Amino acid sequence: MIEFILNDQDISTDLPSGTTVLDYVRYHKDLKGTKIGCREGDCGACTILVGELIREEVRYRTMTSCLMPLANAAGKHIVTIEGINPKDGSLTPVQQAMIDESGTQCGFCTVGFVMSLTGFCIDETAKTPAMGISSVDGNICRCTGYKSIERAAELVCRQLADSNSRSVPNYFAAIPQRLAKHYGLPRRETGPEAAVPLLGGGTDVYVQRPDQLGQAEPRPLFYDDELRGIRDLGDIIEIGASATVTDLLESTVMQSIFPDLCKHLKLVSSTPIRNMATLAGNFVNASPIGDMTVWFLALDSDIALESDDGSERTLPLRNLYRGYKDLDKQPKEIITKIRFPRLGSDFYFNFEKVCKRTYLDIATVNTAISLRVETTPAKDWKPPALMESKEMAALPKVDHLITNAHVSAGGVAPVPLYLKETSSFLIGRNVDAGTIEKANEIIQAEISPISDVRGSAEYKRLLLRQLFRAHFYELFGI
Amino acid sequence: MRNLDSHSHVRGESIYLDDIPLIHGTLYACVFDSPVAHAKLNTIDVRDAEESEGVVRVITAKNIIGENQIGGIVPDEPLLADGEIHFQGMPIAIIVAESETLARKAAKKIKIDIETLEPVTDPRIAAANGDLIVPPKQFILGNSPAAFKTCAHIFEGRTETNGQEHLYIETQGAYAIPAENGGLKIYSSTQGPTAVQRAVCRVTGLAMNEVEVDVQRLGGGFGGKEDQANAWACITAVASQLTGRPVKYALHRMEDMRMTGKRHPYSSDFRIGLDRDLKIVAYDVTFYQNAGASADLSPPVLERTLFHCTNSYFVPNVTATAYSCRTNLPPNTAFRGFGGPQGMFVIETAIAHAAEKLGVPASEIQRKNLIDDGQRFPYGQKAESEAITSWNQGNKKYDFSGLQKEAELFNTSSRYFKKGVAMMPVCFGISFTKTPMNQARSLVHVYSDGSVAVSTGAVEMGQGVNTKIAQVAAKVFGLPIEKVRLQTTNTLRIANTSPTAASAAADLNGKATQLACEAVLTRLKEVAAELVEAEAGAITLVDSVVFRDGEKTDLGWQRLVMESHLRRVNLSEHAHYATPGINFDWSTAKGHPFAYHVYGTAVVGVTVDCLRGRYEIDYVKCCHDFGSSMNTAVDNGQIEGGIVQGIGWMTIEEVVYDPDGKLRSSALSTYKVPDIYSVPKTIEILPLETDRENLAVFNSKAVGEPPLMYGIAAYFAIRNAVRAFSPENPLAFKAPFTPETVLMSLYQS
Q1: What was the ipTM of the complex prediction?
Q2: Nearest-CA distance from A474 to chain B in Å?
Q3: B675 and A357 in contact by Cβ < 8 A?
């Protein structure tokens, strides 16, 4: 039995825990405001809010209900548009802004936008229009061309500055107490009897196998507290395997290590998917273009695996992949932690990704690099012919000697690829055009892309060459 | 004036097909469709499916009571494959079960015995094989063979434009409910209720008066539900007829993408001749339209390609030839612009190509050849042109050459980022090119409580047509718009409707509504004249009050209505409107097919990241001919949405088929429409100032399709930026300009 709060109503249901929240609210609770657009998390028409009790407060995140099983709703506050609508038939400030700026035409995607913007307004942190727009980065509208929705987001921000209205009904105030009182933390099943399939955020398995999972009782790992959290252990950073991309994005530990964290992670799917997608899920689905896998490969990460008898082993992430979707992992083994060595001030990190659509898309090719670099005064420094920016012109006249290097790439092999030869080649070289071009030759020998819907093999080769150049352009301005 | 549906939209209370409360006993249909594009279909084995849990019936072609045929223009489209398979995704069998899950489960148990045949996906190969949907069509103006001999410059080349998935966020679907005496009521997500009604009658053998089709609204259409809603309505109708129970089918996204047609891809050859002053003297063009497996709406789409083959330009000598080529793809269909964008892309390519070879800006050739008043289009109609005024007013506001210079200056100082700018004049004809379709009816009831109900043939799909029609009724009656309610589009109330298409629904149905309201108003005024003791001519209605000679009286709307009812005055009217003055004769390919044209000029600026091959659209600035907009909120929304959809077609939206005709871009994860970050950073819309009269409702010109074609400039702007980085690389004229094409263009010489 699964228990949770749906809008203002306490729910307990015996339906298969793999049933999607979308099907549950539409066809079992007759709440038809949440729409079905694609059933693969790519359109946002089914966006809902999911409230989780954290200490004494409920933190709401947007999620796509098409990829979310009831198992992950246990003990949560699930909010659909019906739980937002004022009972007297009036409108919330978000709804009013969408009307005032004509942000709705056919209306089919509109509820998703309203839910995303409501999630954006719901906490009391300072808001900017850019943040409002990024809150709807997972919502597709085919009618408006988005400009009116941008204006609605801006209007909402102006109103928040004036009134601090949270755009939710009064019953929300009692939700923290209700969750605390009635809903205990779900316990993770362990031991040989524990169920499979394993289930993280669902963002991949519900795209791949929706029919199978919808009837199943998967073993949820998503809200397992033992599998969450990002800890700074000094020389090592340790991340719980169920940490989401959003958890990384909001982590002060990660922000302090990766100055471009926001810019880079914005390239990874969309807000609701980042709220659901776990690191372990990304690793084990073994997609050759998994963004977070490529990211952590370049950090030379290790993963900890726990088997059903409770024993644990550690594995370099790059050794997890034996071939296409073939892992060094038993079906019931769970990834529990990811660890990578802390990066100091002599470390450089960059992430690049190109896809057909820059945001909210799957990579054609992605790549990450981490370098440890020693700087020494330059022997024969010359200014580049064209300056991109004043900052570049002001670059110190130094040589950069690479003392350690890890490079990874996705979309160019059957697995997310650690570029072993390239990485070892770079060690001991200076950062200069010659090194980059020679390394690029080695990369071309290490990769084996195939032509598919995301691009031709020829293009993927060219693209990785360019993105490898882009690493050095971003990090060193060359 | 906001869209009337806004309130229920933002509260999630608007009702779409999948939200209709179901009648007890409703069954669910799904389709077993072909896994291959071309094959001989020997046998279908449905035994296991029939025995599958919850299955009520499995239906194949032989069970259809009426005719197994849904082709509207050419009878070449079976509802269910019979003997032959023509495209991947072609419906073969219908499974009807107690639940959607059980129906889908059973569908997997159907087995077919087929012999695969060689599929054709290239329209030129189909044309070479003589496999045409209809005989070739041709427009001739002047004498291009002779004129080419006089040209100072002649250029020729080839273009390709790809298809485009409609991606209405609400997928296709229908819900059929048995009525008395074998009749049917069909709820359909369709732009063409009458088209659905006709198709359902054909496959069920029922008469049109036995089939009711009802449409509340669509979650987007864009042309994709003009003709292609028919199949799903027919499937539920056939299933309902054979089981005697209500049957619903709302397609899954991947079924929708796989089984429905898209915008037509075109492959075209052009030849353009100019004189020394850069005037276009002659233009020859041949279009190969990839129609897919059956006609659907391909013939009229092909015709509109010809109608718009010279866009906003006057070309005195034109030979334009068009082939509709049958291939083994899903039948391609209407999509916003309806062949016009494909035609315009080719002449814009011809101009860009000439400009590049001559070393002049394309905008110079564009500007010098804009059509002027009184000059004729290749189909004979004289222009009442705003092409030059829209260009000039746009230039005055935006400074086109200033924008170009700004980009050039940026490019000289940037290593990896290059800007490109391009212009796009647009001229789009309004009216169905098939003249008989330019008619509409409206049924207006004034109820005794003073509320007003309007039914028309127009279907609301987000474009705001219901809002505009309500405005018409409110304006004629002098009422606040809240007093007017638009009813569902229903074939019982309005018969023989034209589909909501061709940007013409507000004009046709708005004018019919105006006529109906005016007829009722005339009768009301007579009563009012009696009540306030005046001549009927002295009566006006303003803000729900009767005015006599401009003076307010104490006779209000509600009392006037009740008094009229008590006097047995008819408070209802069913009015008919037919667009005057239009005609077209295909035997000469000449006539006056359009009520009017919509004009405009846009300038688009982009920045290409030449390191990575990505790009951003910096701005779209346009001067657009609204006539006199009756609803700027709705109309600006149409412009912004149209521009972004046009840019999508030209940039990231790529329909990919395997050589064997299987759709690879079959989901939202593989087919990308613009998201909020891929749209232009700014869109500026300057309404053209003009005081000309036109045939649009309240002078407010149609706005649905024309702005889509502004997006074509994005292609040429990207091209210009790519050329700024690598001027020597040869570039094909092949759309869309995906990041892949950009990067390959930048680095492959």
Answers
A1: 0.97
A2: 11
A3: yes
